[in-house]
From TrEMBL:
GO molecular function: acetolactate synthase activity; flavin adenine dinucleotide binding; hydrolase activity, acting on acid carbon-carbon bonds, in ketonic substances; magnesium ion binding; thiamine pyrophosphate binding
Protein name: 3D-(3,5/4)-trihydroxycyclohexane-1,2-dione acylhydrolase (Decyclizing)
Region (Disordered): 603-623
Hydrolase is among the record's keywords: yes
NCBIfam families associated with the record: myo_inos_iolD
Taxonomic lineage of the native organism: Bacteria, Pseudomonadati, Pseudomonadota, Alphaproteobacteria, Rhodobacterales
Residue spans of biased composition, Basic and acidic residues class: 603-616
Length: 623
């Protein structure tokens, strides 16, 4: 500490990189850099200054070259999720369209409460060369630009207009990204001239610092009130969300449920909190859930919601529960804990469950309630076994999921997002080990699958290098964003990618049909402007980017192909056609509110609207 008054002259870009390389985090008693490196595409807005700084720290902060800025953001989000939000990656993009491409991935990280640091080029602070290449001019506000759009999708936002500002801004950005309650993306705009300006920075600013994730203790009175409410329950239920894993509270959740014999259901983000064979795991809840979880949710009188933001697919647009059921929100974020007038426990899940367990004393739920829940789960297991079995109708998502589930390793990581696969994976995947499923449904973002798989694989290679990252994607998402197959080949971060081709956006076509509408503009075959019907050769396309690839014509063939993919040393793509109309999981769906036309020239649409609205009476009105 003898250099408190010493300074060092650095550019803004050099200071940012030097600061990041000195930040560490303690995980399970071991110290590691909190920033695992970054993803970058250089342009005139970030290559000359930030690029120079990153080159000189390329060993401490490895820079992965992206193919698309949006994909970089997805990869960074998946990396953070795989590390349970305890480590993050930065993304750097040039001023203008490069930075604008990060907007969608920033929104994904924001919705999923994931830390991603965005270091993006901006216009010149002096304005002397204005208007510059790729600058958007707002006539009445010269300070307003593309980067201001990130204010809506960032937890922390700043634009550096003087070199000294990063002394305050960088610690504030890190504090936000590592805060359990406020976690999310941080955006720092870097004007092109300011990046190269120098300042005499305090040497102490670059001292090594070890961060720890804060564990907020709950209020004793909230614990007391929640315990009293739970002890009054005849039919209690626990909803386990993604926050259980981020708090590293799976053991405490399991112990709490076992001690008090309370059935546990999982959200989409909370999949893989309990393994499939645990006798208190009553399955996934909600619109993309299971009959077993939804049936007991309808009967539950007190619901403990742990680490979930209770989005509409979890709550069935708030029809999944009895209107008289009492909800206790246990969440480190007050915003999520207090939803729908819940009784609240604002605090860390691990500490809160330990304290709540003590306050519950010897309470156990009635034997008949648990017996009924287990019976419901057994019936659902029988349904899933039939649903995924090969030969059960035409080739389907469910059958592909069943093949992989049966033949993967317990610690392999599963990645899926958007379209029909999140529902099918959530309903049909039988969890083999804790924390092995990443179904991105917070933002339900097409294109996350392959890019997210790459980011997840980078994280996995740091902790479990001998396991595989397995990506499920449809043909629609593949066509939207596939270039990080090439990224995975370049960086030798092997993925196994299943491209399940149903000829378009089949799940939205299904919704279109279910609301009385004709198939239109979703399946390629039903797109009037697609006057030249041609199939995409996904196998050849994947091979052109350096991946190994093959096409199979059945789930039986998929089993053999998957075995070949497992032993391969590089990214392996398996393509299989699935039926767009048949083979969907038909059970396990709670009601979901969608906007339907109140009037239509089509009787089918009108009748579908009436049928949809007729089931609304069970919707809770905010209480």
């Amino acid at each position: 500490m003898g250099h408190q008054n010493e300074t060092i002259k650095l550019t803004v870009a050099q200071a940012i990189v030097r600061y990041l390389s000195a930040q560490y985090i303690e995980i399970d008693g071991e110290k590691t850099r909190v920033c695992g490196g970054g993803f970058g595409i250089f342009g005139h807005g970030n290559v000359t200054c930030l690029g120079e700084a990153l080159f000189n720290h390329k060993d401490e902060l490895p820079l992965y070259r992206g193919q698309n800025e949006q994909g970089m953001g997805f990869a960074a989000a998946a990396y953070a999720k795989a590390h349970l939000r305890r480590r993050f990656m930065f993304c750097t993009a040039s001023a203008g369209p490069g930075t604008a491409n990060l907007l969608t991935s920033a929104a994904l990280a924001h919705a999923n409460r994931l830390p991603v640091l965005m270091l993006c080029g901006d216009t010149f602070n002096t304005r002397l060369p204005d208007p510059v290449l790729q600058q958007l001019e707002h006539f009445g506000d010269p300070t307003f630009g593309v980067n201001d759009a990130f204010k809506a999708v960032s937890r922390f936002w700043d634009r550096i207009t003087h070199p000294a500002q990063i002394i305050q801004s960088l610690p504030a950005a890190l504090a936000t990204m590592l805060d359990p309650a406020d976690c999310g993306p941080a955006f720092i705009g870097l004007p092109q001239d300011v990046q190269g300006w120098t300042y005499d920075y305090p040497v102490a600013f670059f001292d090594e610092r070890v961060h720890r994730i804060r564990r907020q203790a709950p209020d004793d009175l909230e614990i007391r009130d929640a315990a009293e409410l739970l002890k009054s329950a005849k039919r209690p239920m626990i909803i386990a969300g993604g926050g259980v894993q981020y708090s590293v509270a799976v053991a405490e959740l399991t112990s709490f449920a076992e001690a008090h014999q309370i059935p546990v259901v999982e959200t989409i983000a909370g999949r893989a909190n309990l393994i499939a064979t645990h006798d208190l795991n009553i399955g996934p809840l909600g619109v993309t859930g299971s009959d077993c979880a939804n049936n007991i949710a309808e009967e539950a009188d007190v619901i403990l919601a742990v680490g979930t933001r209770l989005q509409d697919f979890t709550t069935g647009s708030w029809t999944a529960f009895s209107k008289t059921a009492k909800i206790i929100g246990l969440n480190v974020a007050r915003h999520d804990a207090a939803k729908h007038m819940s009784a609240t426990i604002v605090g860390d899940a691990k500490i809160s469950l330990i304290n709540l367990d003590e306050a519950m004393s010897d309470y156990k739920s009635p034997t008949e309630w648990i017996k009924n829940a287990r019976s419901e789960r057994a019936k659902w297991d029988d349904y899933v076994a039939q649903n995924v079995s090969i030969g059960n109708g035409p080739a389907s998502y469910a059958q592909a999921i069943g093949v992989v589930n049966e033949n993967c390793s317990p610690r392999d990581r599963i990645v899926a997002a958007a379209g029909g696969l999140p529902a099918e994976v959530t309903a049909n995947w039988r969890t083999l080990d804790v924390g092995t499923v990443d179904v991105e449904f917070g933002f339900s973002c097409m294109g996350y699958e392959i890019a997210g798989g790459w980011g997840a694989r980078i994280a996995q290679s740091e902790t479990e290098p001998n396991q595989d990252t397995i990506v499920f994607t449809g043909d629609g998402s593949y066509l939207l964003m596939n270039s990080d197959l090439y990224s995975s080949v370049l960086t030798q971060k092997k993925m196994i990618v299943l491209v399940l081709d149903n000829g378009g956006f089949a799940v939205i076509n299904k919704l279109q049909n279910n609301t009385g509408n004709e198939s239109f503009n979703n399946l390629i075959s039903d797109t009037p402007t697609a006057t030249h019907q041609v199939s995409v050769d996904f196998e050849t396309h994947a091979k052109s980017m350096g991946a190994l690839a093959e096409t199979v014509d059945s789930p039986a063939g998929l089993k053999d192909a998957f075995a070949r993919a497992k032993v391969a040393e590089q990214t392996y793509v398996i393509v299989m056609k699935v039926d767009p109309y048949e083979g969907w999981t038909t059970q396990g769906h709670a009601w979901w509110e969608v906007g339907t036309p109140h009037i239509s020239e089509s009787d089918r649409v009108t009748h579908a609207h009436q049928d949809w609205e007729a089931t609304r009476q069970r919707q809770r009105k905010g209480i």
